[in-house]
Write a structure and sequence with these properties.
Layout: E1 2-3, E2 14-28, H1 31-43, H2 48-72, E3 76-88, E4 91-103
Parallel strand pairs: 1-3
Antiparallel strand pairs: 2-4, 3-4
């Protein structure tokens, strides 16, 4: 599956737009990692526990979006974007979305 953030696939022509596809996950903090992150916050710098957590959540959302595109028979997903929102204290939703297309 070709996944791009542009509205085209270089060297390819879009033959059909299949529609919006999206994948999401709601991810909560792990209490152990939350404690470690709290210590890091005191001294400053990157909070690696949260960086890893959000990276993993983005990958899950992206895989789910690709799965939806495959179900439609898409060759690619264009205009891919990510969105994050807090749904409750300590939990965030990661949404990956784009346009599923067939290529010539």
């Amino acid at each position: 599956m070709i996944v791009v953030s542009t509205d085209f696939v270089p060297g390819k022509e879009i033959s059909e737009v299949l529609g919006l596809v999206k994948g999401n996950v709601i991810w909560a903090k792990h209490i152990g990692k939350d404690i470690l992150a709290g210590f890091r916050q005191l001294v400053g710098g990157e909070i690696k526990e949260y960086t890893e957590m959000m990276s993993e959540a983005r990958e899950i959302a992206l895989r789910r979006m690709i799965q939806k595109a495959e179900e439609l028979g898409a060759d690619a997903v264009i205009n891919v974007r990510f969105m994050t929102s807090m749904v409750m204290q300590g939990a965030a939703e990661i949404l990956a979305y784009g346009t599923a297309v067939k290529l010539k």
